[in-house]
């Protein structure tokens, strides 16, 4: 385990670097911030009486904390360290937050174990909990299930309304956090890729599409040894909560709808290069936009996966139903991120239209019917499909693998994939990244691919033995 030094504090960084530091922190541990969601009864955080808009209090900015203005009617529930939730869960620290919930490390006074308590905004519907319960099997056990088990479900009544809550097993971090500027060992990368694919296959086998697969939604399971620590021992190991007083900008007293102190989330994970096979145990999280194609139609225009991981049919077939193949595309980009350093497609410093250009540069021409409806194509290609003069041309898949995966692995002395294994990886990727969703393999077929069977599965099995 890590010492108290592991808690990352953005207070010591300048505001200019805050966006970079935020990628290392844990607000996105359980839920990406400000994701478009459809499971609320009404738009939160608005305050209107008749036609007169009420001026809400404003609070001084605290780096690393959630948007404090969301502590209002219909918003977050105010929580303080030491609170006892539902007469059972003692709040120990904060694990993260998103646009629709806060997540708290709590000690279950009944079961004598640590859990993550997710508290939704007021008056929201527990869509994610409903999905997780549908995905759970009667024989599922916390120690091995790659999908979070809902251990308890309840509601909290507070000054901002009635909040849906659920408890799940604790996670240390997400894979994006621990792999920021670091690489996994070859055996660990193969194991993580296989385990993530296995988790997606499990979701699909139970009739659901996850709909938002990327490394921020892939969590690292906490070891069972965490439950052996008393709260004081936990504090000795990880440090005291990172607390900052909440203050209004106008200097007035705080209303009861906001906590008196803000808690900057705790980070308990390792860096990627420190991972061993024993650490490679995942939880696929955040089912807030999941759906079952058999009972719910989700159109391409309603796909809210970040553009870096979004399949192209969401853009070019906006009125067609999405299906399991959307997860296959996103899974391929997640596996790429596990294996290498730089993303296959990236919106960092690029617009959504430029990401589509990246995809075409890397994979080749899109279907003719899509090309005819791509209004931006003349900005990037001439009538013969030749890249426009003067622009950067993104490398083809094989060259991208060399530049964004192999080169960094070689430079960091983290091991490179052999020519034979590289060929198998690219073969699998090319199938998963087919433009037409109906041409992509199922996740079960991905598990049967040459790379998964010959390289990823053996390391995954070794990891299971060691754990």
Automatic annotation (TrEMBL):
EC number: 2.7.11.1
Entry keywords, A to Z: ATP-binding, Kinase, Nucleotide-binding, Serine/threonine-protein kinase, Transferase
Annotated positions binding ATP: 118
Keyword field contains Transferase: yes
Chain segments annotated as transmembrane: none
GO BP of this protein: regulation of mRNA processing; spliceosomal complex assembly
One Pfam family, short name: Pkinase
Chain ranges of the Protein kinase domain: 89-452
Catalytic activity: L-threonyl-[protein] + ATP = O-phospho-L-threonyl-[protein] + ADP + H(+); L-seryl-[protein] + ATP = O-phospho-L-seryl-[protein] + ADP + H(+)
GO molecular function: ATP binding; protein serine/threonine kinase activity
Cellular component aspect of the GO annotation: cytoplasm; nucleus
UniProt-listed PANTHER family: PROTEIN KINASE DOMAIN-CONTAINING PROTEIN-RELATED
Name assigned to this protein: non-specific serine/threonine protein kinase
Naturally occurring in which organism (per UniProt): Pochonia chlamydosporia 170
């Amino acid at each position: 385990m890590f010492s108290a030094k592991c808690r990352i504090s953005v207070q010591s960084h300048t505001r200019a670097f805050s966006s970079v530091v935020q990628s290392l922190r844990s607000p996105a541990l359980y839920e990406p911030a400000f994701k478009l969601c459809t499971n609320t009864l009404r738009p939160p955080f608005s305050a209107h009486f008749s036609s007169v808009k009420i001026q809400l209090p404003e609070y001084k900015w605290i780096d690393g904390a959630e948007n404090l203005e969301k502590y209002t009617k219909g918003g977050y529930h105010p929580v303080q360290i030491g609170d006892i939730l539902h007469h059972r869960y003692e709040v120990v620290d904060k694990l993260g937050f998103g646009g629709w919930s806060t997540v708290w490390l709590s000690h279950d006074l009944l079961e004598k174990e640590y859990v993550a308590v997710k508290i939704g905004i007021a008056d929201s519907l527990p869509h994610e909990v409903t999905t997780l319960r549908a995905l759970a099997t009667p024989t599922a056990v916390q120690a091995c299930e790659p999908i979070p088990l809902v251990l308890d479900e309840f509601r909290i009544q507070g000054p901002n309304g009635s909040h849906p809550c659920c408890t799940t097993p604790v996670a240390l971090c997400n894979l994006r956090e621990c792999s920021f500027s670091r690489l996994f060992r070859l055996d660990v990368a193969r194991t993580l890729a296989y385990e993530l694919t296995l988790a997606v296959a499990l979701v699909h086998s139970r009739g659901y599409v996850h709909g938002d697969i990327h490394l921020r939604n892939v969590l690292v399971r906490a070891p069972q040894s965490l439950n052996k620590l008393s709260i004081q021992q936990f504090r000795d190991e990880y440090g005291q909560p990172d607390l900052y007083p909440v203050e209004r900008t106008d200097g007035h007293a705080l209303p009861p709808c906001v906590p008196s102190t803000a808690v900057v989330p705790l980070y308990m994970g390792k860096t990627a290069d420190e991972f061993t096979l024993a650490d490679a145990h995942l939880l696929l999280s955040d089912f807030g936009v999941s759906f079952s194609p058999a009972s719910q139609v989700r159109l391409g225009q309603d796909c809210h996966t970040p553009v870096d991981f979004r399949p192209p049919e969401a853009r070019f077939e906006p009125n067609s139903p999405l299906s399991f193949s959307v997860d296959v595309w996103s899974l391929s980009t997640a596996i790429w991120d596990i294996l290498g350093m730089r993303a296959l497609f990236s919106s960092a410093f690029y617009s959504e239209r430029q990401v589509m250009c990246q995809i075409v540069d890397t994979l080749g021409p899109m279907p003719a019917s899509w090309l005819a409806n791509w209004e931006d194509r003349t900005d990037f290609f001439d009538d013969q499909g030749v890249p426009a003069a003067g622009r950067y041309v993104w490398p083809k898949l094989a060259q991208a693998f060399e530049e964004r995966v192999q080169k960094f692995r070689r430079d960091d002395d983290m091991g490179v994939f052999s020519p034979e294994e590289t060929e198998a990886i690219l073969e699998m990727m090319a199938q998963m990244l087919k433009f037409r969703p109906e041409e992509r393999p199922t996740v079960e077929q991905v598990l049967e691919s040459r790379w998964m069977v010959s390289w990823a599965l053996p390391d995954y099995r070794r990891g299971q033995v060691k754990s």
